[in-house]
Amino acid sequence: MGLNDTLRYFLSILLIVLNALGFAVGAVLMSLGAAAFAQYVRTPGLYEVIYGRDIYEVLIFFMASGAALILLSILGILAGVFSLINRLRCLAAALLLLYAAIIFALYTLEVIAVSLDFSQFFAIKDDVNATIEAEFNSLLISDMYLNMSRIEFFFQWQNDNECCGWTDGSAYNTSTMAVRLGDSSWRPMSCCGNLVGNETCSAGHSSYYLVGCDDSFLASYSRYSWTYIGISISAALIEGVVLIISFSLIGLVHCSGPKSEKE
């Protein structure tokens, strides 16, 4: 086996391994997109406030991107496998050309996407605190029980993270429910822990959460944002390496029937 054949075998195996990794990344993208979409369906209002009205299309794009990456990875695996088989070199060359063209287009788009992800992340992070607090307070002042699909997320978040309100629970002092009851100390049940029997939550209850939810919410937001950015960067790096391997294999795979059969 000559040097070219050795290099061809090595690059083919490497292409197969990297595309198997790409398959896994595609599955992760689909899973994250599906999980976020399920959350969006449950509380569409909050997602639209944070990410904009086009968040539905963005989530669909994430799931579609994951599916496309899975299909592309299958194409890459086939190209790598066929490159190992002498009698299938012509088919391997055709698949490699198609694969390399798609990867080149995706790599260009991925570089642009990573740049946009960074700029969008920092731009939104600067505004998200004020935006969510304003939305939260406006829901409390309006009839919040007519907007349960939008405010229930806050109640659930308070319960899960043992916090109350955005910076603290004082925003509830002028909420529609507090006004109806004539009690500015009223708080939703999720603002208290360890309620017993028919106990109600108030600012004076012993298990009332004094901490606001802004820190935990922004920490979660940052964690998910960096996850998406990290996946995008990883995908761009992998695509760059795969692109180099693909072009190298195209040069090493010679589609010449008789010669291939002889080898």
TrEMBL record:
Topology of this chain in the membrane: Multi-pass membrane protein
Any Pfam family matching the protein: Tetraspanin
Compartments where found: Membrane
Transmembrane segments: 12-38, 58-84, 91-109, 226-253
GO cellular component, one term: membrane
UniProt keyword annotations, A-Z: Membrane, Transmembrane, Transmembrane helix
Keyword Secreted part of the UniProt annotation: no
UniProt superkingdom: Eukaryota
Chief location category: membrane
Protein name per its UniProtKB record: Tetraspanin
